[in-house]
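We modelled the chain as a single entity of 274 amino acids. Its sequence is:
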Amino acid sequence: MTVYQGETFGLLGPNGAGKTTLLKILLGITRPSTGQAEILGHQVGDRKVKQRIGYLPENPYFYETLTGWELLEYAAGLFRLSPATQRKRIPDLLDQVELSRKIARTKPLRQYSKGMLQRVGLAQALINDPDIVFLDEPMSGLDPTGRYRVREVILSLKSQGKTIFFNSHILSDVEMICDRVAILAQGRLICSGRLEELLDTTHRYFAQGRGGRLEILETWLQDLSFQQGFWQGYLHGDPYDFMASVRGMGGTLTTLSLDRQSLEAFFLSQVHAA
């Protein structure tokens, strides 16, 4: 499996597939029993590499008596960032993850909500301005607003040219923000590639309209159905010829869109086949 510089890569798999184990191997937290892995051209665990990566675990443990600001100062100290750098970097990161500077300075972490902890956790993962950011289930347990904010942070990192590698069970978010994905099942890589390559988008159009003649529609549309005066179905045949046919029989075409298999449907089919 290869992750390319500057891309957002999503690792998918059912519970127990080995996603977190793989991520910990890449981070040098867990040693592999066999095989090799490299990050930025170096073997995993290399100190030079660790200076250039950021990490947010699924269930991070932070010292709950610290404020968010103190946590970030502590993380900055681990990377030996100068006081001057910290004074600029910490406020900028708090703004980026949309966490109030006042709350970060005054409120201890034990009083933070799940979403606030996730945001300050993202900030600590970015404190060293890493080239690669590893996120383990970054949307887990968040409400829709929290998920939206985390997505926005990831998209912001992507626009900065960062490489993002994350695990997730929330496939709709993965489909929204990832360039490529891989599916892991029982410790084995099932598939890997760009979404448009994995999800079938060829020659499957969804059509909807009203009017026309049933016997003609049946020759063009599969799974033909009628709802509230409209017909709909999946087109087999040339879309331009179909549009001409609809006009010719006095009907109105309201929708004609290329239908794509959802990532969820693809994921389930791959996991069940494995």
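As a brief sanity check on the tokenised model: The longest strand covers residues 188-194. DSSP finds twelve helices and twelve strands in the chain.
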